[in-house]
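dumping this here before i forget
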Amino acid sequence: MCKRRSLTELEKALENALNSENYIDNSVQTKLEIITGIKETLTRREKEIFSLVKNRIANKQIAEQLGVNIRTVENFLSRIYEKLGVKSRQDLQAL
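structure:
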């Protein structure tokens, strides 16, 4: 649970805890849904490159690490952007 939530949400979280139930904050739930959608949408290699970009690894280092040409990395990134509906590396890192 995020610390800036309403009293109602805090009460619901405590009630769930007392009943041995899970409680997931709405903002966390949204993030989980995005991540789950990403995992279902991308290929194995796209997920690998997505993860490296999220860790702020440059295209050149990604290419070296994966043993591919930098243009190949750029092509994968273009497909990732299209699939996830983002326009830039910064948008991708913000997911």
